[in-house]
Specification:
By secondary structure, the protein is of the alpha+beta class.
Length: 401
């Protein structure tokens, strides 16, 4: 590992078109799981100017069975979609929660996929697809996340809170951020560049109003980043293209699953390739990515490593993982192979099967929409939400190792 380097991560706001799509897809996941904890959902969303389209496969008792919708189900789906867009804050001519055109193209899950996943006879529930999933944690921030991504998320989350509260009425929903840090001896030492592009009300691209917006953004950065990282040498690029009045789905089409690096570790860790939003937890793209983050975070929280990457691999229809790989990047206090054996020995993890993961983390609940903006990881576990961010495995790992 290099000790001295520059590294950059980006985030996008809840109003970014791809994130609008992610939040709609996860609102549908939550809706169906609230009706049937064993529901199967693969919901993709397209957003563009005054249009939202749903597509994908579902199976949900009491909502969609035998190719038929229950009375009122399609109306509830549309209402859920419009309420999601309203909560984000889109009331613009090019994209308005009340007037956009809506299409629902969800249909029945393939029976051939279902037979591979369903438990039957002596066969345990299998993985919903093949694939590889990665989890990561490091000690760069209290959230055990890469600092560049953590700060990028928190800049936009703070701006969104100010927009919703009325503190910053000149902000509109669409925004992006990017943070570049200089690392010395492997630790964040200075912020060299901050990029923030935010949709704004008319007139906030020139004169005193432009200055007000830029001063506001610099103030948010100063609230989010540790003061030791900021200096006169920090370069700011705030709305570097000039005007940013047209944004969201009116400015660019959005699709579910296009922000997988924003969703995970900002490029600081490998990614298996699968997106999370719109998928029920039988899909290991989602559930196995959550358990690997949970394991990596607990390993770092236990002081067993300062940096940890974990990979799991699955085959569709097969319950047991094909492989488990741990890499502490030379920072571990014990051997990586010992950590692997310790993980597999913990009975509470259920052998890391899809059923075992869902049971241990309690994933068959409507808990996903809050994860669809500002990252799935590094969040505060509260109640049923973000259970993969708990550090309740620390004592068990210490005891085993």
């Amino acid at each position: 590992m290099r000790n001295n380097y520059l590294f950059t991560s980006e985030s996008v706001s809840e109003g970014h078109p791809d994130k609008v799509a992610d939040q709609i897809s996860d609102a549908i996941v939550d809706l169906f799981l609230s009706k049937d904890p064993e529901a199967r959902i693969a919901c993709e969303t397209l957003t563009t100017t005054q249009l939202v389209v749903l597509a994908g496969e579902i199976r949900c008792k009491g909502v969609y069975e035998n190719g038929e919708w229950a009375p009122g189900a399609q109306e509830e789906i549309e209402r859920t979609v419009r309420e999601t867009v309203k909560r984000i804050g889109y009331e613009q001519d090019g994209f308005h929660w009340e007037t956009f055109r809506f299409e629902n193209n969800l249909h029945a899950q393939s029976a051939h996929i279902a037979q591979g996943v369903d438990a039957a006879g002596n066969k345990d529930e299998g993985a919903g697809d093949q694939g590889i999933m990665f989890g990561f944690a490091c000690d760069e921030t209290p959230d055990l996340m890469p600092a560049t991504l953590d700060y990028s998320h928190k800049i936009l989350a703070r701006m969104a809170a100010d927009r919703h509260s009325g503190r910053a009425p000149f902000l509109e929903p669409d925004a992006k951020s990017q943070v570049t840090l200089r690392f010395e001896n492997g630790k964040p030492a200075a912020a060299t560049a901050i990029v923030v592009s935010t949709q704004h009300a008319p007139g906030y691209d020139e004169g005193a109003k432009d200055a007000e917006l830029k001063a506001y953004v610099k103030g948010v950065v100063a609230e989010v980043l540790p003061s030791a990282l900021l200096s006169d040498e920090t370069v700011y690029h705030i709305n570097p293209t000039g005007s940013f009045e047209i944004g969201g789905p009116d400015g660019d089409a959005g699709l579910t699953g296009r922000k997988i690096i924003v969703d995970t570790y900002g490029g600081a860790s490998p990614h298996g390739g699968g997106a999370f939003s719109g998928k029920d937890p039988t899909k290991v793209d989602r559930s196995a990515a959550y358990i690997t983050r949970y394991l990596a975070k607990n390993i770092v929280a236990a002081g067993l490593a300062r940096r940890c990457t974990i990979q799991l691999a699955y085959a569709i229809g097969v319950s047991e993982p094909l492989s488990l790989y741990v890499d502490t990047h030379g920072t571990g206090t014990v051997g990586d192979d010992q950590i692997e054996k310790a993980i597999l020995s913990i009975k509470e993890l259920g052998g890391l099967t899809p059923r075992g993961i869902r049971t241990h983390l309690g994933l068959n609940k409507p808990i996903y929409q809050p994860s669809a903006a500002y990252g799935h990881f590094g969040r505060k576990p509260e109640g049923d939400f973000f259970p993969w961010e708990r550090t309740d495995l620390v004592d068990k790992l210490k005891a085993v190792l």
